[in-house]
Amino acid sequence: MELTSESSSSMRSKSGVGQVCDCGLPAKMFISKTARNPNRRFLGCELYKEGGNGHCKYFSWVDEEEVKGWPRRALVEAQAEINEKNKIISQLSTTIMELKGDLERNQLQKKKIDDMEAIVSRQRLVITGLTGLLVCAIGVIVLG
Ligand SMILES: [Zn+2]
């Protein structure tokens, strides 16, 4: 596609950026996969993924305003809520384990354990729902 210099300059601004890394190459956009910054876009060296060597340390977050539809804050909050629920589940699981240990001595605890397990499975359902929501939101951000 060799058209005019005008189209190539608009191509450049569309792909990102106009930013140049320390090697003098045009900066490339990546999507972060870390737990701390899930699906956040950043600019990095074009050589970033090629073996991890030979590239410079250029790195820059793309402004959060560029995330369309869902603000990044909402994703982070959802993630935090999931983490919180996971913590509750693991606490409840520990309690269940302890109660099961007592079971031999006290069969009446059985009812209590059943209740706890019902709570845990409800929490799991909530997490499944939140995770689905998160996946949707990520889809919106990545595709839209
Ligand atoms: Zn570079």
From TrEMBL:
Pfam families given for it? Zn_ribbon_GRF
| Assigned keywords, A-Z | Membrane, Metal-binding, Transmembrane, Transmembrane helix, Zinc, Zinc-finger
Q: Where are the transmembrane segments?
A: 125-143
Q: Which residues form the GRF-type domain?
A: 21-65
Q: Which PANTHER family match?
A: ZINC ION-BINDING PROTEIN
Protein name as annotated:
Uncharacterized protein LOC104709451
